Amino acid sequence: MSNCDSCSSKGNCNSEGTGCGGKLEPKYGKIKHIIGIISGKGGVGKSTVTGILATELSKAGHSVGVLDGDITGPSMPRFFGINNKRAEMIQVGDTEEIKFRPVKTSRGIKVISLNLLTEQEEQPVIWRGPVITGVLKQMYSDTEWEELDYLLIDMPPGTGDVALTIMQELPLEGLVVVSTPQDMVSMIVKKVIIMAEKMGINVIGAVENMAYIKCGKCGEKINVFSKKSAKEHAEHLGIPLLAEMPINLNLVESMENGTVEKFLEESNEYEELIHNFKDRIM
Ligand code: ADP
């Protein structure tokens, strides 16, 4: 499906129906905003931030999809507690083509992940780069997204093959960069930011995750990794700070229990994140 009808360059470009500038368009849906969530290295909370953003956008009344692009380390089904469900694979008419029906979370967020397509979630992916990027593109193109306001892509960490494919071939509107306030992490994150700049991709801002803990008794904010503030780290990265998030054991517990959406429905902790995010997109 192409959205050329509304394009001012209609008839003057050579994209041949693949979408603006030759970018891939989903076959079974129309998506207003496609945003990638990326980090320099694993374990800093990229998937957690993807899930929080998706839930907060859904709370604000938007229709949301999540593409788990971290093919070798998919964690979105576990985040939403839907890891015991399977995405349906449906034959398209009489053709050999298959489309995917995403699994819906309790809020109705549409999620597709390799872990929802394989029989067991522990099954590893032992594929080389080109196969992995092919699968990623197929999950993006062949999923029944229908009408979405936002598709959030949980990208693999770093500047590898899949990240490059997403930046080059998908109509990404921008990237949210997740980091922890540590000089070592910032150095690696900087590589991602420079890569995005070289590819002409807008960097929406940084989320400094696990930046501090709050004392349960006196409420004092204690920086965990660095004496520098999250703001100073974002300034060093040269991108706006969207939010500074604490280590939150209640959040972790709700993820472990599969009740994260309920936890987030009752929490207003991430209002700043969603406010700053939407401010930089609309
Ligand atoms: P990534 O996608 O960058 O690899 P994850 O989102 O999977 O990272 O998070 C890594 C681990 O850290 C997970 O166990 C997750 O539950 C935990 N985690 C992430 N963010 C927070 C947070 N703000 N508070 C507490 N634990 C967190």
Entry keywords:
two-stranded antiparallel ribbon, Rossmann fold, binds adenosine-5'-diphosphate, single chain, alpha/beta, 12 strands, globular, 9 helices
Describe the structure.
The protein is an alpha/beta fold. The protein has a single domain, classed as 3-Layer(aba) Sandwich (Rossmann fold), CATH 3.40.50. It is 32% helix and 21% strand. The protein is built from nine helices and twelve strands. It has helices at 46-59, 76-80, 129-141, 161-169, 183-198, 230-237, 249-257, 260-266, 271-279, and strands at 29-39, 64-68, 88-91, 98-101, 103-104, 110-112, 146-154, 174-179, 203-208, 212-214, 221-223, 241-244. The strands form three sheets. The chain has an eight-stranded mixed sheet, sandwiched between helices. Strands 3-4 form a two-stranded antiparallel ribbon. It has a two-stranded antiparallel sheet with strand order 10-11. The relative contact order is 0.17. Adenosine-5'-diphosphate binds at residues 39, 42-48, 75, 209-210, 245, 247-248, 251-252, 255.
Can you tell me the CATH architecture? 3-Layer(aba) Sandwich
Strand tally is: 12
How is the main sheet built?
8 strands, mixed
Strand content: 15-25%
Q: How large is the radius of gyration?
A: 19 Å
Q: Regions with pLDDT < 50 over 5+ consecutive residues? A: 14-18
CATH class: Alpha Beta
Run of helices and strands: EHEHEEEEHEHEHEEEHEHHH
The total tally of domains equals 1
Which secondary-structure class do the elements indicate? Answer: alpha/beta
Subunit structure: Homodimer.
Organism: Clostridium muellerianum
Keywords: ATP-binding, Hydrolase, Iron, Iron-sulfur, Metal-binding, Nucleotide-binding
GO molecular function: 4 iron, 4 sulfur cluster binding; ATP binding; ATP hydrolysis activity; ATP-dependent FeS chaperone activity; metal ion binding
